[in-house]
Amino acid sequence: MILALEVRAAGPLGSTIQVDYRVFPDLAMMDGNWAALFAASDGKVYAGLAYHGGDGHLVYYDSKTDSMHDVGNLTALCGESLLRRGPQSKIHAKFGEGKDGRIYFGTHAGNWWDYARLGTKEGYPGAHWMAYDPKSSRVEDFGLACPNEGVNTGAYDPAWNRIYGLTHPRGHFVYFDVAKRVAVDKGRINNFESICRTLGIDKAGNVFGSFGMGQIFKYDPRTDQITELPLRLPIRPKGISIGRDYDKSETAWRVVVWDDETQKFYGVEESATTLFSFDPGGIPNGEVRRLGQLCVPGFEERRDVPYATLSLTLGNDRKLYYAAAGREFDYSGSAEPATSHLMSYDLKTGKIEDHGEMLLPDGRRVLGTNAATTRSDGTIYFVGAIEVRPIAGKPVEAAGRIGNVHYRLALIIFRPGA
Amino acid sequence: MSVQRTWLSIVAVIAFVPFAWAQRDTSYDFSVVSQVRIDLRDLGYPPIDLIPSDESEIRALAVAPDGRVYGATSGGRSHLFLLDPRHGYIQPLGTLADAKVVHHSLVVSKSGEVYIGTALAVDNNAQGYEQYAGGHLLKYNPGEGSALNGIRIDKPCPVVDLGIPSKGQAIYALTIDRSRDVIYGLTYPDGEFFSYQIQSGAMKVHGRVATKIMPGEKFENEKAIGRALAVDQEGNVFTSGEGGRFYRFNVKTQQLERLEIEVPAVPGREVYNRVDAWTTDGEGNLHGGTSDGYLFRLNPAKLAVVNLGKPISQYRIRGLVLAHNGKLYGIGGDGDEMARLFSYDPASGSYELLGMIDVNRRPYYSWHGYVFDAMEVGLDGTVYMGQAERKSKLYLYYPQ
Model confidence over A286-303: pLDDT tens digits? Predict the structure, then answer.
C-alpha cells in the first residue's frame, strides 16, 4: 500500500453547495452538452444542446431579462432538413465572440454507428461553420467545415477572426478564416479516441492542443504550420483505467482556460483530473507544471476516478472553478447517478477547495456537467444534467435516465461569494 | 445560495483499491478487424527520431529481392524508409531532394538498388505544374546507405539523380521488369509513358496514355491516367488511359498501344475509370483494381478481361497483393471515405470483407487508418499497408 499526502481544503463529509438553475423550456428531450457554453459580453449565455438521433439546438439565456431563448434547430439552420441524412445533433465545441459581436461555432454529429456510415450517402454530411448575430437574431452558415466529419473540439480567435476545430473521427486540425471565407484542413493530428476536447489560444493567437501520449502541439497562424512541442502533460500511466470507457484514452487534456494575467493556460487532463498549468512562453518550448487534482476528494489514486469533465472556468476572484463528477459521467451513458462536486483552485494561494455536492434549491442533485463559463459580473455557469423527480399523474419531462434517475439538461448558476 | 463551511485536512489516499466497475462491457470496444491479425509500426523511433507529421503519407512501397521493405512518404517533404523484417522496426533513410510526393513510384532492382520517382503533387487538377521543372528518377544504393548512416530524419538520403524523364512532368507510377533491367513509368499531369534502361541509363518517352481532360466541371483538370503499371511474363507493360481503355507497351515493337479492351466500369462511367492498383498471380494473369472499385483479371496473352465484381460499395481499390495463401488482398476507399480491407479467393471466387483498418493495442497504442495508398506483400507473407494521411503508420496484416 502506498500513501500519498496532499494538502487540500475539503468540505466535511456530506457537505453541499446550493446552486441556482434554469431549464431549457420545450427542449426537455435534449440529452447532452459538451463544452458548448459561453457567456458573451452583452450578458447572454449561449449553449449548444445535443440531441442524439435528432436535431440539436442553439439556445441562449439572457441574464438581463432572466429569459431563455431557442435560436433554432441546427439541422434546419444548416439547410439540411430535407437531406434525411445524419442530423446536426450537437454543438460540441466552445463558442467564441467576434469583434463584430457575433458568436462563432461549428456543428457536430450525434451518432456514429460504429463508423459504418462514415462517408456513405446516409451518413453525416459534415460539420458547418456558423455565426449567430445577436443584433439581427440571424445565423449565418459559412458552409461545410469537413465532409463527413464533425467539429469535435473548437475555439474561436477574435484577433485572427478564425474558428478552429478538431474533427471527429479523423482528428484533423481545421479552421475557417471568417474574413477570407476560406476553410482549411491541415490534416490529421490524432486518433479518434484521444482527440483533446479543448483548443487553447494564447494572446498571440497561437493555438494549442494535446495529442499522442500527453504531448502538446502548437499551430502558429503566422506560418500556418503545426509543430509538436517536446512537452508532456502530467498524465497518469496507463493500466489504471479499468472502469473507463474504452474510447476514453486518458492521454489528452480535457479542458484548458487561458489566463491573461499570468499568460498561462490552466487545464485538467483526463486520466486522473490532474490540474496543470501550461506556460507557452516558458523556456524553451513552454513549461507544464502539475498543480494538484480536482477530482472529488478520495478519488485521487483510485482506479475508478471519474473521467474528467469539461467544466472548468476561471472566475473573477482568481479561482478556477471545476464541477467534478461524482462517478463516471456521460449523461445517459452513465451507469449510475452520483452528485457533482464544485471544486475550486485559488490561483493566489494554490489551495484546492471542495465546496461539496451541488444541489438545487429544492434539494435535487446535479448529476453531472460538461461545460463551464464565467460572465463578466463573475457569475459561473455550467450546463449539465439535473435530477428530475416524476410527479404522479404528469408526464415526465426528461431527456433520459442515469441509472434509475430521470434527468434533463439545465443551465446551472453559481455566484461566488453570494 | 450558501456554501457550507469547509475545513482543512490532510487526505491520506490509497494508491490501490482492489475493486473497480466497468462502465461498459468488452463489446463496447468495437473492432471489426481481428486484432491478432493486424499491427502497425511508427515511421521511426518515437517520439523524436520519427518521420514528422505532414511528411508521412505512405504512397509507395516496394519489397526488395532480399526481403527488405522500402517505403517513400509524401507531404511537406518526402522521406525514404526501410523495414528489415529481421528487426521489424522502421529506419528512416533521409529526405528526398525536391520531392514532396512519391506516388506509386518505388521499385527495387534484382541487385537491390532502389529507384524512386518524385512528384510535386498528384490528383490535384495539375495545380502548381506551370513552374515545375519535373520529377526526378532517383537511385538509392542500400550498400552505401542504410548500414552506414543509421536513422536520418532531417538529413538528405544519399541518392543518385538519374534525371527528369520528361520536362515539367512528375513521375506518377513506376514498375520494373527485373529480368530485363528496365524501369517503366507514367508521368503526371500528361500521362506520358517512359522507360529507363538500368544498364545503359537510357531514358525514353514512348507516348501518352491520355491527351484530353476528362469530362467535368470547369475547375476539373485531370486526364484519365492509370495510377499503376504492371509487367506481364513476356515483358509487356500494362496500364489504363483515356476512355477507360487498357494500354500496353509492347516490349517487342517498343510501341505504346491503345487496346480495344476496357477497364471494368459502371456503364457510362468508362471515361472516368482507371486502374488504381495491379498485382500478378503465378499463372501469368494480371489482377487489377479500378477507381470505380472493381476487381478484375486480365489475361495478357489473350487480352481477355474478367470483371470479378465490386468487393465494397466505395470507390477505388488503392492497394492489391497476392498473399502466400493464394488469396488476393486489397484496400478500397477514396480520400473522404473509410478504407476497408478485403480478400478474394480465386479458387472459390469468393470475397471476404475484413472491414476497417484499425489497430487497437490499448493501453499501449491505437490508431485507425482512413486513407491507404500502397500495399505490398513481404517474402514471409506479411502484407504491408501504407497509410496516406498527415500522420501515418505502416500497417502489417498477417493473412491466415
Answer: 999 999 999 999 999 888
